[in-house]
Design a protein that fits this description.
Number of helices: 0
Distance between the termini: 33 Å
Structural class: mainly beta
CATH superfamily: TolB, C-terminal domain
Strand content: 35-45%
Oligomer: single chain
Radius of gyration: 16 Å
CATH architecture: 6 Propeller
Strand order of the largest sheet: 1-2-3-4
Order of helices and strands: EEEEEEEEEEEE
Helix content: under 10%
CATH class: Mainly Beta
Number of strands: 12
Number of domains: 1
């Protein structure tokens, strides 16, 4: 563990009650968002150290990413969709098909600075 934990520092458990966490991403201010996929929620760990629920239900979201406009994108695999979530939590489902077939199970994504969206669809 010395390679990832600074000598003299200790690991500290910040929270519990999760089943399976995924997709950590920071917003422009530095707050951390992540999913608790089986519990169908997106969580926020704020800079002040407060843990709260951003959205529940959230389509059993996995991977998360912010775009250049501050929208939170999510791989909502309950219905194999990509979601764009505005600051007011309004969800826009992004129509997504490959070779005229629906997605299999989007898992992770990244928003490029030029506006492109790249995602994995592993199945």
């Amino acid at each position: 563990m010395d390679e990832i934990i600074k000598p003299g520092e200790k690991l500290e458990k910040l929270a519990d009650g999760f089943q399976f966490t995924e997709g950590p991403v920071a917003d422009a201010k530095g707050n951390i968002y992540f999913t608790d996929q089986p519990n169908d929620r997106i969580m926020i760990w704020s800079l002040s150290g407060k843990l709260s629920t951003f959205m529940q239900p959230c389509g059993r979201s996995n991977g998360l990413s912010f775009d250049k406009d501050g929208n939170l994108w999510a791989c909502a695999d309950q219905k194999n969709e990509l979601w764009c979530i505005a600051a007011d939590k309004k969800v826009t489902v992004i129509p997504s098909k490959y070779q005229d077939k629906p997605l299999n199970g989007p898992n992770d994504l990244w928003n490029s600075p030029n506006g492109g969206v790249y995602f994995t669809d592993p199945y």
